[in-house]
Design goal:
The protein is α+β, with helices and mostly antiparallel strands. It contains five helices and eleven strands; from the N terminus they run H-H-E-E-E-E-E-H-E-E-E-E-H-E-E-H. It starts with a helix and ends with a helix.
């Protein structure tokens, strides 16, 4: 009798743990962004400006181009177009050129929404810089419309662990930045 109760308790614990673990795997853009527990980002932190286009070279060849989204002079996001692979994973999974966005903080989950694109990223970071390969269309929308909805779920390394934030970045328009990445 005690053995059956013990086995039943173990089974309940295992089922609970496995179902809880799978919730993160089943998370998608819609279920994440439809959550009601987002805190609005202070409006003073949502007005960004573009930096100039910067080209980085390696051995005389273009390695990547970069545009930063800035709050005052502080980096919020980096938008990148890569012409070079930085590691084996990239060379096996992407074709050149490819695009990425970097955020300089710890997050469990990040989602972006523009006029035409929803983007969702849900992976465990190993460094404070979260770099996400994103579709070209997302970058095109950001540069064309100068608006980006952002949904953020703080990670375990953050002082605001487990808090969720939402905001709509409005970016001061800068002429011809789409030429930096040759996106129309």
């Amino acid at each position: 009798m005690k053995k059956n109760i013990f086995i039943s308790i173990i089974m309940v614990i295992l089922n609970y743990n496995f179902s809880f673990a799978n919730q993160g795997n089943n998370l998608d853009f819609k279920s994440f962004t439809n959550g009601q527990d987002f805190i609005s980002i202070n409006k003073d932190r949502l007005n960004l400006k573009y930096s100039n286009c910067k080209t980085h070279k390696n051995n005389g060849n273009i390695s990547y181009k970069e545009i930063k989204l800035l709050l005052n002079e502080d980096e919020v996001l980096d938008i990148n177009k890569h012409y070079d692979f930085l590691n084996d994973y990239q060379s096996k999974n992407f074709t050149l050129p490819f695009y990425s966005i970097s955020i300089w903080a710890w997050y469990k989950t990040v989602a972006f929404k523009t006029k035409n694109v929803n983007y969702f990223s849900n992976f465990e970071q190993v460094t404070k810089r979260r770099n996400m390969v994103v579709p070209k269309e997302l970058i095109r929308d950001i540069l064309k419309f100068n608006v980006l909805n952002v949904y953020l779920h703080q990670g375990k390394h953050s002082k605001n662990n487990n808090k969720k934030y939402f905001g709509k970045f409005i970016i001061n328009k800068k002429d011809n930045l789409s030429k930096c990445f040759n996106i129309n």
